[in-house]
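Budget justification note: compute hours in this period were largely spent on complex prediction jobs such as the one shown. Inputs:
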Amino acid sequence: MILILKTGASEDQVAHVIARVEELGMRAHLSRGTYRTIVGIIGDENRIREEPLRAIPGVAEVVPVLPPYKLASLDAHPEPSVVDVSGVKIGGGNLGMIAGPCSVEDEDRMFRIARSVRDAGANLFRGGAYKPRTSPYAFQGLGEDGLKLLRDVGDRFGMPVVTEVTDVRCVDLVARYADMIQIGARNMQNFVLLTEVGRTNRPVLLKRGMSATVTDLLMSAEYVLSQGNPNVVLCERGVKGFDPATRNLFDVSAVPLVQTLSHLPIIVDPSHATGRPDLIPACALAGVAAGADGVHIEVHDCPEVAKSDGPQALLPDQYRELAAKIRQMAELLGKTISPLPQALT
Amino acid sequence: MILILKTGASEDQVAHVIARVEELGMRAHLSRGTYRTIVGIIGDENRIREEPLRAIPGVAEVVPVLPPYKLASLDAHPEPSVVDVSGVKIGGGNLGMIAGPCSVEDEDRMFRIARSVRDAGANLFRGGAYKPRTSPYAFQGLGEDGLKLLRDVGDRFGMPVVTEVTDVRCVDLVARYADMIQIGARNMQNFVLLTEVGRTNRPVLLKRGMSATVTDLLMSAEYVLSQGNPNVVLCERGVKGFDPATRNLFDVSAVPLVQTLSHLPIIVDPSHATGRPDLIPACALAGVAAGADGVHIEVHDCPEVAKSDGPQALLPDQYRELAAKIRQMAELLGKTISPLPQALT
Amino acid sequence: MILILKTGASEDQVAHVIARVEELGMRAHLSRGTYRTIVGIIGDENRIREEPLRAIPGVAEVVPVLPPYKLASLDAHPEPSVVDVSGVKIGGGNLGMIAGPCSVEDEDRMFRIARSVRDAGANLFRGGAYKPRTSPYAFQGLGEDGLKLLRDVGDRFGMPVVTEVTDVRCVDLVARYADMIQIGARNMQNFVLLTEVGRTNRPVLLKRGMSATVTDLLMSAEYVLSQGNPNVVLCERGVKGFDPATRNLFDVSAVPLVQTLSHLPIIVDPSHATGRPDLIPACALAGVAAGADGVHIEVHDCPEVAKSDGPQALLPDQYRELAAKIRQMAELLGKTISPLPQALT
Amino acid sequence: MILILKTGASEDQVAHVIARVEELGMRAHLSRGTYRTIVGIIGDENRIREEPLRAIPGVAEVVPVLPPYKLASLDAHPEPSVVDVSGVKIGGGNLGMIAGPCSVEDEDRMFRIARSVRDAGANLFRGGAYKPRTSPYAFQGLGEDGLKLLRDVGDRFGMPVVTEVTDVRCVDLVARYADMIQIGARNMQNFVLLTEVGRTNRPVLLKRGMSATVTDLLMSAEYVLSQGNPNVVLCERGVKGFDPATRNLFDVSAVPLVQTLSHLPIIVDPSHATGRPDLIPACALAGVAAGADGVHIEVHDCPEVAKSDGPQALLPDQYRELAAKIRQMAELLGKTISPLPQALT
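Corresponding output:
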């Protein structure tokens, strides 16, 4: 860590800075420049990262040298991690193809959609039983009935299932039914929930918050990892932008950026990123070309009656066409769409 | 609600749109323009707000006419609400002056800080016992011990206390000790937590999320209100910006904007908005001048050893000076700093 | 255009709105909803687009029905435009591969870089002779000497050249030397410059401004088109974002979004979008996969001595590797990298 | 300047970094930490600020120690500057009250508006003769006729006038008629225009660009100052935000932030910042309370027929009421609204 002192910091202030650094068990290395004095702190940066060094009188700026996450970093695990979701692999050259409706709805519809996305090439089925809705008057999901139905679909079609948890009191319940637990964008910094999910042994799909930097996202992953659960898959799903033409701003550069910093797989969700079926296929392909480890797409067979997010769903036929293109691109890039765990197809 | 159809929408599509609207129990009023057909929907907009109308084939855009919140709106309550926090009033000409350290720390320090801010004119004492920290390795708060200590401080100095809740399982516990419950920015769309807090009878301080529009903020307030708890105070504390010079971007216009839309009081938190003690006083005064119903400031007597957010704390003397200026400005604007509930001072 | 009146708009206000609409030569179609009155305006929206309708008393909101650009729209030209830059085609399945150093520097270096990018597959050579630098103390470009040198390079290697114009007084000069004129991001809304460039017959490379919506970008293109110059190529080069990890935020969704709205070609510039050589290849491929009509990359053979933007330049070898991957992806997508105009290679 | 080297930078790289630094005429001071090596550069940072140090192999990050502007900094001029606009003072405790219509329109209207704002307390009259419009089809201003009319209004009512220049070829013409020259937000980084305006002796009103950091704004001021024109007044007028409820996001914290960095006066423009008459007064007062050196407001006596920006204009009566409140607040803060230069009122 480096402390840049203020122009005109007094000798007393310099001495106090050094004393404070030594109190914290580190050594200080002074460098007096033409205009400013700089204090290099020598020792384990992690031990003092959370100290309010910028509040020491005379300190103008604190420049960390190491990233604030450890387990999520490439230092901890130099090779890309492969997360196994009940037999389907994500990361390290394996693409996860997650598809399904926004909300779990009635059984017939679930079966129809699941069959269509499985036949198109999806290897994970998604559906929300607990929906974090902006409005208290909107459909909030089917709850445990939805979880059961989702499990049935998964078993019937041989697809592992992923669903969101929003309430810390439901983590065990969700972990019982789902193969992978999703933390939604609005809960990316719900640290209590991250901690509880980290105590399960279920793979976690962690969506990037709308105003989270990539470092913030990796810090949230660190919450899960630090509880002993190493199976985190990150998901870029659009950040807040200023152009009302799209629901969010799809930050495709987050994919290679994460890969320079972390071993964790990262997939893309162009459905939420754009909110527009006419832009989803192009953005899905962009994500794969950028190196994403999977693609998350919402699919519904009758969007105009969907219980949530209908306007951004792809139709089954649109999904089939897109999945075929993703397959071709995966081949070009030397990647594999992880097959379904059992030969049930 | 207005549906703008796509250029070249077919007659079949128009007929289907009308049928769909009528199925939903509304009437459709067609207006064929030079280029586009527009369908005005007549009936109670709230009944169809959550329907996926934009997913109906041929529909290009859906324009709502009413705001999506009800209880938070001026229609529901045309006069400004006054929230009473154990005797201290916020709103309707009464300023809440919330001050205290970021985290609850040791007793001596709490007492010292509380005395200084009370003497300076604060009427509510703050301190976090449960801290939502970006890093799992950072100080997470003293928990229930912190709550007890905070209660002691409040009782000793005659100041109602406000503290954050981050875990839905702790809502009752926090409500037992605190006069006002804070929902932090990162939990503004933790709808489960909002719902539980709405079930208590404690006033709620609801902080705006970093990427939340004012409508989003009011929708989160609606969650609390719709559970039967009418005592919500909103708080502008900076949104995500692109200039690294400040921690966040203080959106002072949110104050008058809320007042054109809602009866709920809104205060400002320039500590989190700027993250810089040298900018906090100017932004606090700006907030009051813009019409804010209170000011939330973090104060610490030795920021360089604070357990969290030290670098953004004002010193007690700086707070005293600022509070004096706020008092003068309040007078100019015809507002009152609500006195402490008892003559304990 | 639709006018949504305020709740409680008086009959006098309604009558005045109608009168004002008719004064402007349009017809008004009234629709009284349950809560609000809506006025559909019938007639040529373009004639009244710039009228301050929102300032008419009683009007709450104005909802346009048509896009504000005409010549740039798909209505004006339903097929994708192909822009011919002295024999190199961009658009309609043809990829422009623009490469070269940020600034024109000395002749030897220019020749070396040009040879390497041409051999790698670039079909347009770039280099700035007039540099818009944030600092008045930074290198501002070689001026006309730079233009001459750029022309020499183009002639010697058979590559059309593109260079930026920043001063309206230099437009003719630049047009004399360059095959394509670039308008930089900071000048995207320099309407005087757009107008002058629109009066030349040179193809224009129009870069998106850092806070411009796609509509803003198309409106700037409209300035050029409306002067009679139909040869505009748009360029996504990153918008302002909140994550300091990258220089800008690469908005890859702008590529398919433009294609739903306009016939103009759009290319991507991952060099400026990310500012990081380690992210440029992934983002370049993402752009092509999303449907971009070309890729703009800065290349330098010794970035540490480059006169500008060295830290974001690819080395010639890195460019060669990337160009090979772009070629493979182009093939997969059925696109062609437009060959050099003459068999000089 | 500090160079942070990459983890694992080789000894050869370290040696090359040092050699490169010395080649540039500076000295390098090495500090080997537990994880990383840091190189402090000793010497005049300004001489190497524009060198591509981040492109040197092995360098991870470059941390500047000094701000990139000189003449605009407090080092160059520790006291607040006072800019004299033909007798009206801005800065150093003097408030500039700029008011007038967006565009110069017909003479009668100009006279009516000028009289009303002068009587309300404005001390500078504004009006655009050259309008930078998003659409090529919108009213572009009256040009030189507008300038003449504006001059007449100024002379008649004894108010200095301010007007925008958009074309480098018109700088002398505008300087002939106007007392103060405005550079609009969209031209804040039109460096050619800044340079030309810097060569006149007219005070310059420099508006912050929509995606400009405060450092960017000060760098643009530096362009003007470095040409010999010291009379620059900065203007915060809203940056790009994500909430469509307001036209831009009013960054009131820019006012005190500028004052910690620069001696230049800074005023606020809540008209463009919010785009909403119902929010303008609150934001104007917020700006003054935050320490702004003036307030820029658009006023029109019949917004529904204004040639531009009608929907955001205040009516003369609304301006009078606001100006009275600003006067009271100025008094409270110990500031003066600079009187008109002559006793013509």
